Amino acid sequence: MKLIRKIMSVAISAILLTGLASCSAGTRNETVASTLANASEHSASATNKETSEVSDTGKENPFGKALVVYFSCTGTTKDVALKIASEAKCSACEIEPVKPYTADDLNYNTKKSRAYKEQNDASARPEISGSVSDWDSYDTIFIGYPVWYSKAPRILCTFVENYDFSGKTVIPFCTSGSSGIGSSATELAELAKQGKWINGTRFAASVNSKDISEWLNALNGSI
Ligand SMILES: Cc1cc2nc3c(=O)[nH]c(=O)nc-3n(C[C@H](O)[C@H](O)[C@H](O)COP(=O)(O)O)c2cc1C
């Protein structure tokens, strides 16, 4: 009996470790991506403490302690988010829906799709799995999402209504097929009510690290 219990406990530990590793893949050593699940968030905030306040040039990081929070269904926003985290030397954290979006849910071409219905329902608030730990410790939040029918996906509304942005600088960014960021970020700012929201930026899927670095340098002047 004891042996069976021991084998079970080793197996469970192995499964947990695999899960943690799969949501902690960063693009550079100092960048940690995680989901909002509490367990993995700890590793993100621990790494962030060590890396985000002082850059590797030894200068103070203009963003203070920063976090990139993003929602992404097909990976484009995630790629951009991880590039931002890498260049800004901070952690990244994925907003994960309790109910993941299937390909049918994302079908742009039908009014029957979940995405279409949610975007056409101003009160839709898809549930988020997990939460950001150590939220109060962040000075700057980069917040990224794909444009859905010219707006931020409703799950971003859930997010901004659930966190207190007081005292934080918020830097929105989005990806899209071709649309600009339009009013999607200011709509989120209105829902959030607090925080100093900087004008948002739209990135193409092809954006590279040099472009991101130049964008961050330009932002320095405006925060
Ligand atoms: C439901 C849905 C609606 C979309 N609406 C727009 C849109 O209004 N304008 C646009 O340029 N792209 C639109 N797109 C394309 C996405 O914004 C684009 O592919 C984005 O980069 C995907 O990001 P992700 O891979 O991080 O999910 C839409 C995509 C989906 C699935």
Principal-axes geometry comes out as globular
Characterize the biggest β-sheet.
Answer: 7 strands, parallel
Any idea what the CATH architecture is? Answer: 3-Layer(aba) Sandwich
CATH class: Alpha Beta
Q: Say which molecules are bound, naming each kind only once.
A: flavin mononucleotide
Keywords:
223 residues; Rossmann fold; 7 helices; binds flavin mononucleotide; two-stranded antiparallel sheet
Q: Would you write up a description of this structure?
A:
This protein has 223 residues and is α/β, with parallel strands linked by helices. The chain has one domain (30-220): Rossmann fold (3-Layer(aba) Sandwich). The protein is built from seven helices and nine strands, in the order H-E-H-E-H-E-E-H-E-E-H-E-H-E-E-H. It has helices spanning 2-22, 38-51, 76-88, 114-119, 154-162, 184-192, 209-220; strands spanning 33-35, 66-70, 91-94, 96-97, 128-129, 140-146, 169-175, 196-197, 201-203. Helix 3 (76-88) links the parallel strand 2 and strand 3 (91-94). Helix 3 packs across helix 7 (209-220) and helix 5 runs parallel beside helix 6. The chain is globular. The structure holds flavin mononucleotide. Residues 72-78, 106, 108, 115, 146-150, 175-179, 205 line the site of flavin mononucleotide.
